[in-house]
Amino acid sequence: MSRESNKYQHIIYDKQDLDNNTLKLLYKNMIKPRMIEEKMLILLRQGKISKWFSGIGQEAISVGVTMALNMEEYILPMHRNLGVFTTRDIPLNRLFGQWQGKASGFTKGRDRSFHFGTQEYNIVGMISHLGPQLGVADGIALANLLKKNKQVTAVFTGEGGTSEGDFHEALNVASVWNLPVIFCVENNGYGLSTPTAEQFNCKHIADKGKGYGIESFIIEGNNIIEVYTKVSKLAESIRKNPRPILIEFKTFRMRGHEEASGTKYVPKDLLNDWALKDPIENFQEFLINESILSQEEEVAFKKDIIHEINKNLKIAFNEDSITPNPTDELNDVYKSFVYQEVNSNKETKEIRFIDAISEGLKQSMEKHNELVIMGQDIADYGGVFKITDGFIDAFGKDRVRNTPICESAIIEAAMGLSICGIKSVVELQFADFVTSGFNPVVNYLAKSFYRWNQNADVVLRMPCGAGVAAGPFHSQTNEAWFTKTPGLKVVYPAFPYDAKGLLATAINDPNPVLFFEHKALYRSLRQDVPTNYFTIPFGKASLLREGNAVTIISYGAAVHWVLETLDKNLNISADVVDLRTLQPLDTETIYASVKKTGKAIILQEDSLFGGIASDISALIMEECFESLDAPVKRIASLETPIPFITQLEEQYLPKDRFEDELMSLLDY
Ligand SMILES: Cc1ncc(C[n+]2csc(CCOP(=O)(O)OP(=O)(O)O)c2C)c(N)n1
Ligand SMILES: [Mg+2]
Which mutation among 130, 187, 188, 263 tests ligand 1's pocket best, with the greatest number of atoms within 8 A of CB? Predict the structure, then answer.
């Protein structure tokens, strides 16, 4: 240390065996995001950009971790990790285009700031909810483990994000499955205005590693050499011996949560102390003192970067804004899927609804040799309904995975598998429990393709429905939560044949599909089903009976209530439309039938308000008004939670009311 001034020598560097070029590259990679940010702060003040989340003071972590990983290894950064994007050399005009919502960005103006991923650079950006990407990293790491490619995945979170359940679930799954993932927690003192003492009550976040059975480390996050060398060593070790690792990087957030919110609540002394530990100024001083970097080089590096920033800003500002076009938007909600018809053969066997699902799943496992299924108790135990009985022997533990009780992390992991091109089926033990994984379904799986062109090739199997006296948490039919969310497909078969063929299609379809299986049908319903693998297209209802007096529309177990009612009343001449899939919905069949009969009644098992019957009714009103001879009737369960005892359950369900309402409609 030759210099007299030690203003910036608040970080002790040990360059170990790093050569000068590497040291200079670490430096260059750190000053780039800093200089971009400084420019952004100016643009913000000029009103040229709308919002900014600053990572100033935390650059060493993004840069050190990114440089420690190989280019083909995935990184899942957060809102303060500009250095990840710049170190992976994303052209700046594309980053600026992204922030301005231009077409050259990564989301076609559909999502802001760092909320994007790019397969070109093996980066998977955050969604606003912070935690879900931790589980997505598990899925990517699982894909790497299954492919035996010796790759590491790094995922970031702030210390605030560690309070979310996703953090706990993701670490636990990674530990139980021994996944090669580095969990990088940037402890920067605050989560918005909340200091760490109000966020968690242990000394270090790294201490939590022990509870999950994970090795953990504390790294001085402002010391680029320490970050880079330690993460490099850990990554190398994980590549050889796959396992998760938790790292807590001690650092500080030097600016407000986002620029508008300021730092008033941060004690001045604390800010001043950390200002002295600036990761760039200290490192620069060190490099100059050690004669590794000359002042001329420093000036030249910065000049180059300023030039690069200005040039690319100009490109981005000059780029035309996106012209809104509804067709473009609608076309990007789902990944296109060319349905492949596989015909059923003549050989059939009479099997139960549950056997049809099991057989369909098994044949899909045979057809797609990378398909992974995950769920609670599905391996040796065969699942609570025994649908995967024997699968473990046929396909092995890698592909038939018992999971801990953590719906969020597993659905997120399924997303991660999809990012790596692996299909998966997740068995929810009961459809009711999807609430514990609701966020990744409606916010991650559903929106990912629209946001950045990344499909979620995931099927969620949903054993659902009433009639089994199982009470409010094991009897719901919650399809309406999902039919309302663009980006999801919803399938709801009523027969073994349909269940088998539609499940095959659900697995072939690269989009997220919720596949509802009515538990009351599992063992009560039999049908002759072709023994071979076959498919049935989505969006095609089946017309079970034909008549002229009324159109009856239903799906799932309720279809059988319709058929029972008609069997009791042979004089009723009705079209019976079994929807089979709710999203996409076969409106063509519905309209054609209603235009013929002039009357429509929709029977749904769920309680009435906000269910799909309401939407179908509205669609009929809009499209078939002039053919209608009576108001469209919706029949559904009582507006209560579903009760336990049989008498209450029967009263709740619309089975009996349906017959009465059908008669009055016919008499209208
Ligand atoms: C589920 C959820 N709750 C709340 C928020 C609002 N929010 C966004 S960032 C943030 C603070 C995050 O703190 P931390 O994880 O420490 O990251 P930092 O911003 O400090 O880098 C909060 C509360 C959110 N985005 N998502
Ligand atoms: Mg924080």
Answer: 130
Give the pLDDT score at 5: 44
Q: How far is the CA of 203 from the centre of ligand 2 (A)?
A: 15
Question: Nearest residue CA, atom 1 of ligand 1?
Answer: 129
Quick one: which ligand is closest to 193's CA? 1
- Interatomic CA distance for residues 138 and 146, integer angstroms: 12
**Which residue from 403, 401, 406 is spatially nearest to 372, judged by alpha carbons?**
401
* Residue 180 preceded by cis peptide, ω within 30: no
Angle at CA of residue 375, ends 373 and 380, nearest 5°: 85
Mean pLDDT calculated for residue range 463-471 = 95
Task: Return d(Cα 377, Cα 361) in angstroms, integer.
Answer: 16
- Based on the residue annotation, tell me whether 307 is a catalytic residue of this protein: no
| Model pLDDT for residues 249-261, shown as the tens digit of each residue | 999 999 999 998 9
Catalytic residue among 79, 474, 518, 560: 474
Cα dist from 2 to 5, 40, 133, 295, 599, whole Å: 9, 35, 45, 15, 92
Q: What is the pLDDT of residues 280-311, one digit of tens each?
A: 999 999 999 999 999 999 999 999 999 999 99
Atom number of ligand 1 nearest to Cα 158 = 15
Residue 50: per-residue pLDDT: 79
Question: At 386, is the pLDDT very low, low, confident or very high (cuts 50, 70, 90)?
Answer: very high
Pairing of strands 181-187, 348-352: unpaired
Give the burial class of 290: count Cβ atoms within 10 A of its Cβ; 0-12 exposed, 13-18 middle, 19 or more buried.
middle
Residue 7: per-residue pLDDT: 52
pLDDT, mean of residues 508-518: 98
- CA torsion through residues 651, 655, 658, 659, sign: negative
The pTM (predicted TM-score) of the whole model is 0.97
- 151 φ, ψ (degrees, to nearest 5): -100, 150
The structure tokens listed for 235 are: 């990554």
The single-letter code of the amino acid at 113 is S
The span from the CA of 583 to the CA of 326, in Å, is 19
Closest by Cα among 372, 642, 410 to 519? 642
Of 54, 62, 185, 257, the one to substitute when testing ligand 1's pocket (max ligand atoms within 8 A of C-beta) is: 257
263 burial via Cβ count (<10 Å: 0-12, 13-18, 19+): middle
Say which residue the tokens 């290894």 belong to: 73
Residue type, 295: Q
**Does 6 score more than 80 pLDDT?**
no
Q: Residue 668: pLDDT above 70?
A: yes
Q: What is the pLDDT at residue 165?
A: 98
Assign 3-state DSSP to the chain and report helix, strand, coil percentages, each to 5.
45, 15, 40
- Residues 380 and 554: their CA atoms lie apart, in Å, by 36
**And the tokens for 596?**
């013929």
Q: Give the C-alpha separation, 226 to 278, whole Å.
A: 14
User: How long, in residues, is the chain?
Assistant: 668
Task: Tell me the HSE value of 75 on the side-chain side, using a 13 A CA sphere.
Answer: 29
Calpha distance 289→294 (Å, rounded) = 9
